[in-house]
Amino acid sequence: MEIQIQNLIKKAYLAFNARDIDTALSTMHPEIQWPKAFEGGYVKGHTEIREYWTRQWTEINPKVEPLEFNDRENGSLEIIVHQKVKDLEGNSLFDGRVKHIYILKDKLLRRMDIELE
């Protein structure tokens, strides 16, 4: 995986963890498809992601740290992350490793899927 793509993905995670939606969205294609991890289905586009994250952060406190970057044979990117999710009182809801699978378009994140390890 080229360093420019790794930096793009790191920027997205840093922005997400800082709750900096505008910077996170700058790493994403306008037609991004993003999974609603705890609800199922997807949101599409910057406006829907902004609304989803804004609502999500009133219910839970997720932090995601990329650990490994791997190219897949089909051209997608596999990012193994350590994900911690707490409720707003600080109680742990999830603490483990997850695979985030990305497809890029025009050097921006176009779709993300989640696979449990």
Description:
By secondary structure, this protein is an alpha+beta fold. It has helices at 3-17, 21-25, 45-56; strands at 28-35, 42-44, 60-71, 77-87, 92-105, 108-116. It has a six-stranded mixed beta sheet with strand order 2-1-6-5-4-3. A hairpin with a 4-residue loop joins strand 4 (77-87) and strand 5 (92-105). The longest helix has 15 residues, at 3-17. It is globular. The two termini are 21 Å apart. The model has no long low-confidence stretch (mean pLDDT 96).
Structure class: alpha+beta
Cα-to-Cα separation, first versus last residue: 21 Å
Low-pLDDT residue intervals, each spanning 5 or more residues: none
Any idea what the radius of gyration is?
14 Å
Query: What is the topology, as strand order, of the major beta sheet?
Result: 2-1-6-5-4-3
Number of helices: 3
What is the 3D shape? globular
Largest sheet: 6 strands, mixed
The tally of beta strands, per DSSP, is: 6
Q: Helices and strands, in N-to-C order?
A: HHEEHEEEE
Which percent band covers the strand fraction? over 45%
- Mean pLDDT, all residues: 96
Helix percentage range: 25-40%
Question: What can be said about this structure in brief?
Answer:
This protein is of the alpha+beta class. Helices cover 27% and strands 49% of the residues. The chain has a six-stranded mixed sheet.
